[in-house]
Each structure stands twice: as C-alpha cells, then as structure tokens.
Amino acid sequence: MQNIKKLVKKAVVNMAKRTAIMEANTTCPLIGFQMKEPQAVKKLRKF
C-alpha cells in the first residue's frame, strides 16, 4: 500500500510541475487571468 501511495504522489508532483512549466511559457487568456505570477513559476521560464 505504501508503494502505491508513493507512486501516486510522485505522479501528481510531476504533473503539477509540467503544468507549471507549460503555463509559465504561455500567455494567460482573459478568462484565466492572474494578476501576478508567483516567483517560483517565473523561474521556470525558458526565455
């Protein structure tokens, strides 16, 4: 049971990180507008 919890936790962390990287490198649409981007996400930018 512990192995399954670790695998699920690792998968969720990886998915969240990939999503943050993708969102850091794209513009926000009007509906999903965020006033200020967190510093941790700004560090993930590729440019």
- Helical segment count: 2
Query: What is the helix content?
Result: 55-70%
Q: How far is it from the N-terminal to the C-terminal residue, by CA?
A: 42 Å
Oligomer classification = single chain
Radius of gyration over all CA atoms, rounded = 14 Å
Instruction: Give the overall shape, derived from the CA principal axes.
Output: elongated
Number of strands: 0
Question: Order of helices and strands, N to C?
Answer: HH
Percentage of β-strand residues: under 5%
The biggest sheet, with number of strands, parallel, antiparallel or mixed sense and barrel status, is: none
Mean pLDDT rating? 80
Structural class: mainly alpha
Structural domains: how many: 1
Which residue ranges are poorly predicted, with pLDDT under 50 across at least 5 consecutive positions? Answer: none
How would you sum up this structure in a few lines?
The chain is mostly helical.
What does this structure look like?
The chain contains two helices and no strands. With 47 residues, it is mainly alpha-helical. It has one domain (2-42). The termini are far apart. The mean pLDDT is 80.
